[in-house]
Amino acid sequence: MSSMQLSPSISSSSSAIFGQKSFNSRTFRASIALKRSGVCKCVATPEQTAYTTKVARNENLAKLQAGYLFPEIARRRGAHLLKYPDAQVISLGIGDTTEPIPDVITSAMAERARALSTLEGYSGYGAEQGENKLRAAIASTFYKGLGIEETDVFVSDGAKCDITRLQILFGSNVTMAVQDPSYPAYVDSSVIMGQTGQFQKDVEKFGNIEYMRCNPENRFFPDLSSTAKTDIIFFCSPNNPTGATATREQLTQLVQFAKRNGSIIVYDSAYAMYISDDSPRSIFEIPGAKEVAIETSSFSKYAGFTGVRLGWTAVPKELLYSGGFPVAKDFNRIFCTCFNGASNICQAGGLACLSPEGLSAMQDVIGFYKENTQIIVDTFNSLGFKVYGGKNAPYVWVHFPGRSSWDVFAEILEKTHVVTTPGSGFGPGGEGFIRVSAFGHRENVLEACRRFKQLYK
Ligand SMILES: Cc1ncc(COP(=O)(O)O)c(C=O)c1O
């Protein structure tokens, strides 16, 4: 196992380093130490200088300092490696894919790349919204019979990027609700847009965000009767980090709730292909959803495209603002202004993903990670832990009642050299849990589970 599997979060790690109120030499030394250890790829580190510009820091970014999760994990992992340089560290933390992209998909990308060296095959800027063939293939593969058409689909460089573009679309004057715990990009992008108040340390929440608590008591579905009305509702199913999947009945309640309140749901279905029961794979399976929802998704966790970068967002033409203007028209404007289209090579890969051979190859990759998930679930079950998720998602949500997530994270790292993710990093509702990711080579997952058994037997 390579001990270098942490870099995906590092782009934001640099912002964590720079995100401190005042840049100090301790942070500087820490970043250098991490660099020397070969663990952390930092982008440019500023030299201390007496000169400052006259530009004030964006005060919304300054609010973020409390909220960085993966950079903090990277920092702790770096410190651990300095302490135990020979440790065989296994990362089941960040949630990055590890298995090779199936050949049928990379061959298509290679072919497109080679064609770019020919007069006939060369192409420059493409349509910002993506190639029609791919938009049509996404519509017919993921939304067949649901009334989502090729023109409703915007092909992108990934769901995370679309989440931020959606925030630009909504602007700073909207209110938003989020599952607690949830994927950190929703809250952080909301803070950056200026939709929130300051971070409130006592409750570990940002002001002006409605945190919808999701825990075992409510089967990880929020109590909508006590949820405040907001303009936007971010909802992810299967959920990262809990692995919980909303049922058809629950999503029907959510759509009705949004309709009553006049809200827009941003539905993140980045793990939908991991669903193996009859839970909906798209919000658009729910009657009426096209009038209240946008769906964002990704090839990242299906085809190992975390580095390739390809995703999409479906904005139905039925979705209208209060004044009757179509949301899709504005999203198109945002797309054309902020984005110049996904890489043509990646789009060739996306098309190959959706061919019969590609779909079957993606199912194999997903099946492999699902076997990993089962190994992790069985391990924690055998040790007497309460375990959630893991059925329809590559994440296992393990309960350590009464304990701090960061303490458990530290205990596991110190005693087993395995990196997990502390649940509280996904919101206050994650306190007392850790997330174990099933993205890993089989031998590493087996070895990590052997170490968990030794620690908690
Ligand atoms: C719920 C969720 N949405 C979106 C993303 C990001 O997807 P992408 O790689 O397409 O940006 C992730 C990545 O972990 C995720 O967990």
UniProtKB/TrEMBL annotation:
Taxonomic superkingdom: Eukaryota
Transmembrane parts of this sequence: none
Cofactor(s) needed for function: pyridoxal 5'-phosphate
CDD domains membership: AAT_like (cd00609)
Name listed for the protein in its UniProt record: Aminotransferase class I/classII large domain-containing protein
Limits of the Aminotransferase class I/classII large domain: 88-452
Pfam families assigned: Aminotran_1_2 (PF00155)
